């Protein structure tokens, strides 16, 4: 699974996970639901977390990616 962390023009960060395996994507979504992190499916293989609160929650749980 690849991870992408980017910055939008507004200065907010977002996180996306891409994987061709539906099982892995479902596991990722299940885990995000479990810890109350809102996500959306950007396309058939990408899961995105993009709200400030959601990214901050991930940073609290797993730390910021360097």
Overall tally of domains = 1
Mean pLDDT: 80
**SS-derived structural category:** alpha+beta
* Estimated radius of gyration: 11 Å
Segments where pLDDT lies below 50 for 5+ residues?
A: 4-9
- Indicate the overall shape: globular
Description of the molecule:
The chain is an alpha+beta fold and 66 residues long. The protein has one domain (2-62): Phosphorylase Kinase, domain 1. It contains two helices and four strands. A four-stranded antiparallel β-sheet has the order 1-2-4-3. A hairpin with a 2-residue loop joins strand 3 (40-43) and strand 4. It is globular. 11% of the residues are buried.
Please specify the SSE layout and strand pairing.
Blueprint: E1 2-7, E2 13-18, H1 22-34, E3 40-43, E4 46-49, H2 52-62
Antiparallel strand pairs: 1-2, 2-4, 3-4
List key phrases describing it:
Phosphorylase Kinase, domain 1, globular
Give a brief rundown of this model.
This protein has 66 residues and is an alpha+beta fold.
